[in-house]
């Protein structure tokens, strides 16, 4: 595989900003001399986590409102890592905030890149097992609906129309392959 030389960054400008997002225009010069302007979200300085919790023979999922689709979506617990947290600490905190359980055992399954064409962001997918009850206060505007889903029916979950976010699907395929090996 040929190793390419990354383009030179000529300039970076903010073209739009809200309290959540900043969009940058990045002027580039490629090694062949061609210049282009790309837009991206300002790179995050914090990663995020997705916590897959297994309780006995069930997955613990949440159904929460998603503004992008304007409907309730089924998925795994996820959230931003706080400064100084490891992925396992962050996943454990998110589980406790969103569904009221923590996990004694954590396994890192995979790190996903979230749309690397326009975002420089990592999401660490972790499997939490050996659960215990502990509720922490979270930042959700309403209580989340906790859904128990039988591990024996993972293939059906892949077809569920309310479980269709790409990150969730990638995590579920990763979990399925992990469980086959272990």
Automatic annotation (TrEMBL):
<dbReference type="InterPro" id="IPR000086">
    <property type="entry name" value="NUDIX_hydrolase_dom"/>
</dbReference>
<keyword id="KW-0378">Hydrolase</keyword>
<dbReference type="Pfam" id="PF00293">
    <property type="entry name" value="NUDIX"/>
</dbReference>
<dbReference type="GO" id="GO:0019144">
    <property type="term" value="F:ADP-sugar diphosphatase activity"/>
</dbReference>
<dbReference type="GO" id="GO:0005829">
    <property type="term" value="C:cytosol"/>
</dbReference>
<dbReference type="GO" id="GO:0019693">
    <property type="term" value="P:ribose phosphate metabolic process"/>
</dbReference>
<dbReference type="GO" id="GO:0006753">
    <property type="term" value="P:nucleoside phosphate metabolic process"/>
</dbReference>
<protein>
    <submittedName>
        <fullName>ADP-ribose diphosphatase</fullName>
        <ecNumber>3.6.1.-</ecNumber>
    </submittedName>
</protein>
<dbReference type="InterPro" id="IPR015797">
    <property type="entry name" value="NUDIX_hydrolase-like_dom_sf"/>
</dbReference>
<feature type="domain" description="Nudix hydrolase">
    <location>
        <begin position="44"/>
        <end position="171"/>
    </location>
</feature>
